[in-house]
Write a structure and sequence with these properties.
There is one protein chain. The protein is mainly alpha-helical and 103 residues long. It has a domain of 72 residues. It has five helices and three strands.
Length: 103
C-alpha cells in the first residue's frame, strides 16, 4: 500500500480527500489513475475508491458500500431481519458441525 493511503481510517476514500495529499505531484489525477491500474485502489465511481489492502483485511458489507455510493438510504426492517436470521442459521450450522464429538 502506498504511504499516502495509510492516512485513511476507513477502507474507502474520495479523490477530494486524496488530492491535498498529492499536491507535490504535478498531476494528482494521473497518480490516482496509476494506483487504480496497479490495484492499490478500486474505483467504484468517479472520485470514489476502495483501498484494496484494507478491503482484504476487513471486508465492508455490501449494504454499507451501497449507502456510500447512492447517498442517504435505508435498509428495510425485512432485510435486517433476514440478515439476522441468516447469521443465526449460520451460527447454528457452525455449532452443529464443530460441537460433534469424535467417534
Amino acid at each position: 500500500m502506498h504511504k499516502i493511503l495509510r492516512f485513511a481510517k476507513t477502507a474507502y476514500v474520495k479523490s477530494q480527500n486524496l488530492k491535498p495529499l498529492l499536491s507535490s505531484y504535478t498531476n494528482p489525477d494521473d497518480f490516482i489513475s496509476r494506483m487504480v491500474k496497479t490495484g492499490e485502489l478500486i474505483r467504484l465511481k468517479n472520485g470514489f475508491f476502495l483501498i484494496a489492502e484494507k478491503i482484504e483485511e476487513t471486508p465492508i458489507p455490501y449494504e454499507q458500500i451501497a449507502n456510500l455510493l447512492f447517498g442517504p438510504s435505508y435498509i428495510s426492517k425485512v432485510s435486517i431481519i433476514d440478515m439476522k436470521n441468516q447469521k443465526s442459521a449460520n451460527r447454528q450450522k457452525f455449532a452443529k458441525y464443530y460441537n460433534k464429538q469424535p467417534c
